[in-house]
Amino acid sequence: MYIHLIVNMRIHDDHPSNALFALPCACQNLRRATRLVTRIYDQELRNADIEITQFGLLTALAIVGQANQKALSAGFAMDSTTLTRTLGLLRKQGWIHVRPGKDRRERVFRLTEAGKRQIAMAQPHWQAAERRLRKTLGPPGWKQMQATIARVTNAAAAG
Is residue 154 domain-resident? Predict the structure, then answer.
């Protein structure tokens, strides 16, 4: 039982305070990895005054041209509240434009010229974060990470 595992897990006092410890849950391990990787990207992107979540949405809009909130939410597997907050920040910065969709509830988003400039300014910093992670993992580790993430994502989406 899960509770039994936690109670019987040993956390030694001789571990440094910044040491990572074993977690008994796939979700907790993935969330921790995501936080640590996000930190790398945000450290680099800070030089362009943008966060990785914002950069990801701008990049997605650059690829698709325009999208409604439902499509963005599905594509990022992101809850509507978080997406609404992030889109609001992008709009406030002048990086995206919103227009009404086919009905009163739908809103369609697209990049502005300022958004395109922001992507261009942030791109080298994003590439620096990619290089940092690739260097740490090495080419085989990078490929293995990509394959594992794809398998986990597909399994979670299916189940």
Answer: no
In whole angstroms, give the CA distance from residue 43 to residue 52.
9
pLDDT tens digits for range 94-145? 999 999 988 888 899 999 999 999 999 999 999 999 999 999 999 999 999 9
Give the DSSP letter of residue 46.
G
Look at the chain and count its residues. Answer: 159
Q: DSSP code of 22? A: -
Closest by CA to 38, choosing from 20, 50, 21, is 50
Instruction: Considering only CA atoms, give the Rg of the chain.
Output: 19
CB 67 within 8 A of CB 108: yes
pTM: 0.83
Q: Is position 158 within any domain?
A: no
What CATH code is carried by the domain that includes residue 117? 1.10.10.10
Residue with tokens 């001789």: 14
Query: Strand order of the sheet with strand 107-111?
Result: 66-68, 107-111, 96-100
Cβ atoms of 54 and 88 within 8 Å: the answer is: no
